Amino acid sequence: MTTVVDRPDEAVARARATELIRAWGVRSDSLAGFVSGVGNVDQVGVEERVEGLRRRSIKRASKVWALDLAIRMMDLTTLEGRDTPGKVRALCAKGRRPDPSDPSIPSVAAICIYPALVAEAKEALKGSGVKVASVATGFPAGQTFLQIKLAETREAVAAGADEIDMVIDRGAFLSGDYAGVFDEILAVKAACGEAHLKVILETGELGTYDNVRRASILAMAAGADFIKTSTGKITPAATLPVTLVMLEAIRDFHRRTGRAVGMKPAGGIRTAKDAIAYLVVLYETLGPRWMTPDRFRFGASTLLNDVLMQLRKERSGRYQAGEYFTLD
Asked: Given phi > 0 = left and psi -120 to 50 = alpha, else beta, which region is 260?
């Protein structure tokens, strides 16, 4: 287990986390006992419920509202080795005005980029209300030293990041080192200062719905403001069944502790139809209070243009060619 030296802010976070664990009601003196006591997932039940919700039809007015909301919930993302300041500035312009010909189209929630480009994005988004989100902690593998993870987080926040997307150590989690994962999230949360923390579980590597639920509860107990499915760098990334498992974990955590945590599915969500299906599952699981960018995001690199095309079709009755919109 990694040793983490408590700083005053981290000690406060640790005390808060301890209270949350007690509020869950698991009678155990260890994190392993806590994680084991959060309950198992009915795999058949989850997949049947998702199939039922996926087939649900919604009226045209509701579809237009959902598409507009999906745009406002997007973290427009570029996380490539070939990213440049110019590419990030272009993405920021797209995030501010997704369709320059239609001022009624809202801005996205955030632009998600690598730490070295945060300052560029912050300058480009000045005065817009669009947040700057930065991946950190050795994204996407997370296989580096804790002090490097913390330094990267602090540097990203100092450069202007409003939100940090960290990755958990999947190897530690899968080997049963829950305390190590918990301590690392606590330390990164403390390093975030005022920035919000999204904790990426990389669900495609966790193997089972039970592990997804356990990792979700563990991350929330350690102080995550959001839990996120994936880095988008492996397959499978976000899926509706995994998202439902995580939303139900958020629901149960909120009922036990009173603390509301957000959710971000990321990777593989490419069409407006997909986005609406996720919003239906969100509404049916957590209700209207989670239908806001403050509590739900889409991690998206190719979703926005399809939503814009569908929104234009719903409003005008005509499809617009994909070439009409700029590439994300």
From this structure: beta
